[in-house]
Amino acid sequence: MRDTASAAPSRVTPGQVANPFRVDRATVTRWATTGRTASALTLDGLRRGVEAEVCEFLGRVPTQVR
Predict the structure, then answer these.
(1) In angstroms, rounded to a whole number, what is the distance separating the alpha carbons of residues 25 and 6?
(2) Which residues face 49 on adjacent strands?
(3) Other CB atoms closer than 10 Å to residue 34's CB: what's the count?
(4) With 60 as the cut, is the pLDDT of residue 30 above it?
(5) Which H helix or E strand runs over 54?
(6) Considering the chain, what is the average pLDDT of its residues?
(7) Quick one: average pLDDT of 36-65?
(8) Is residue 28 part of a domain?
């Protein structure tokens, strides 16, 4: 039997995505709704992002110079 758990992408919550960006979870949910970041809804209706795609998105966002 094939182990499907290792083939599944790692999922992250909107809160886990919001922390490195220093934004609210609602902003991350809006990004997912508009297609800026990839996400999926779980069976119980919670939104989860794909960790690898979120890291890629984080790398594309320009940082502000203070």
Answers:
(1) 28
(2) 12, 39
(3) 8
(4) yes
(5) helix 51-60
(6) 79
(7) 79
(8) yes
